Amino acid sequence: MQTTLRATGPLPADQAWERYADLDRWPRWAPQISGVAVSGPGPRRLRPGLEGTVRAAGLVHVPFEVLAVDEQARTWSWRVRVGPVTLTLDHGIEDLGADGTRTWLRTTGPALVVLPYSPVAFIGLHALLLQR
Q1: Is the separation of the CB atoms in 92 and 73 below 8 Å?
Q2: 56 within 8 A of 34, measured Cβ to Cβ
Q3: Threshold 0.85, pTM exceeds
Q4: Torsion angle of C-alpha atoms 47, 101, 89, 121, degrees rounded to 10
Q5: N or C: which terminus of the chain carries fewer CB neighbours within 10 A?
Q6: In whole angstroms, how far apart are CA 90 and each of 67, 70, 98, 131, 132?
Q7: Number of H helices, E strands in the chain
Q8: Which residues of the chain have pLDDT under 70?
Q9: Which own/partner contact pairs does 75-84 have at CB distance under 8 Å and 24+ positions apart?
């Protein structure tokens, strides 16, 4: 199953991208994420091949791998595993000029996981674009 969520807000696109690109910022805007650990050395910034674990709700550790990052286009993709289930999440940020910024998330995986995750992801997308 595949879903696409979109949100629009006042935060400039470059600032929204930095909230994605800097892993230490994720818990500030994503209510489901309480921390991010990465494997190996290197910057804590989105890059293809980056692997690690997202701590969700402080309890669940979800392994991930970043598949692609295009900083210029402000898009990135990653794969996460929840037990035996794998999800692919594609993200993007669009500059709407005077109308603000739009972010989108396309999630692909089993409906049993994608559907319950969608409301939480929707809240995160809106929070990503708020000035704070």
Answers
A1: yes
A2: yes
A3: yes
A4: 120
A5: C
A6: 9, 11, 25, 23, 25
A7: 3, 7
A8: 132
A9: 76/20, 76/46, 80/54, 82/113
